[in-house]
Amino acid sequence: MTPLTAEIGIFGGSGFYEWLDAAEEIEIATPYGPPSGSIALAQVGGRSLAFLPRHGPNHEVSAPFVNYRANVWAMHELGVRRIIGPSAVGSLKPDLHPGDLVICDQFFDRTTGRADTYYPGPEVVHVSPADPYCPELRELSGRIAEQQSLRFTPSGTVVVVQGPRFSTRAESRWFSRMGWDIVGMTQYPEVILARELEMCYLNLSLVTDYDAGLEGSPEISAVQAQDVMRVLAENIGRVRNLLATLIPLIPTSPSCNCQRSLEAARI
């Protein structure tokens, strides 16, 4: 394996802009424009890893303007077959607290205008997102989270909003009544683009706040950006520790169907 390849990719989310020691920084050009920044390549637990902060190294790109197609394509060009996408989210339920981890199994998309496919035509592809997150990686990460005594939920639905603004109270109430668990801004179209390139995708959502507050709990105030960053700073170490344990244990040969997603998708 050459120094310019990787098998596992990580998109650092809010508050997670750097991680790897002794990394080689490279620039990747894509047909979809530049990614959010340079990609760091290094070895972690004997595995080759690529790391890219999706918002840029200084959080200069907000969620609606992230070039998701370029980011995912760059990972694919490096040979990445598994992507892990940590993200900061707001809780929509009273039993999901700041500092909790949600290993998502579903999303609900409420974004608009984001470039969300590599197949605009003439070749048409309809990938199935019925189960958008890799079941093998979800099970493995849940096992590790339990071993590390983390407060975590092994499944959950994230509703993806456009951003960069947070929710109104009316929106937040509706999200909760729809049965969704958490709210974020970046899972769509990142996970679907990975599916179109036949890559496994795992989301680790760190709860940082209660969105616009919780109905019936007036003592819980609406989210402020500074509160998000404070909770992230207090808890991001747990995510890093989970990743450091998870990465060496990821099987080299997948047992899931994620990497065969195009077999029945073409018209």
Element-by-element helix/strand order: EEEEHEEEHEEHEHEH
Low-confidence stretches: none
Overall strand count? 11
How many domain units? 1
The biggest beta sheet is recorded as: 11 strands, mixed
| Fraction of residues in helix | 25-40%
As a whole number of angstroms, the C-alpha radius of gyration is: 18 Å
What is the terminal-to-terminal distance?
35 Å
Mean pLDDT across all residues, rounded?
92
Written account of the structure:
The chain is α/β, with parallel strands linked by helices and 267 residues long. It has a single domain, classed as Rossmann fold (3-Layer(aba) Sandwich). It contains five helices and eleven strands, in the order ββββαβββαββαβαβα. Strands 1, 2, 3, 4, 5, 6, 7, 8, 9, 10 and 11 form an eleven-stranded mixed beta sheet that branches. β3 and β4 form a beta hairpin. The chain is globular and about 50 Å long. The chain starts with 7 loop residues before the first strand and ends in an 18-residue tail after the last helix.
Q: What would you say about this model in short?
A:
The protein has 267 residues and is α/β, with parallel strands linked by helices. It contains five helices and eleven strands; from the N terminus they run ββββαβββαββαβαβα.
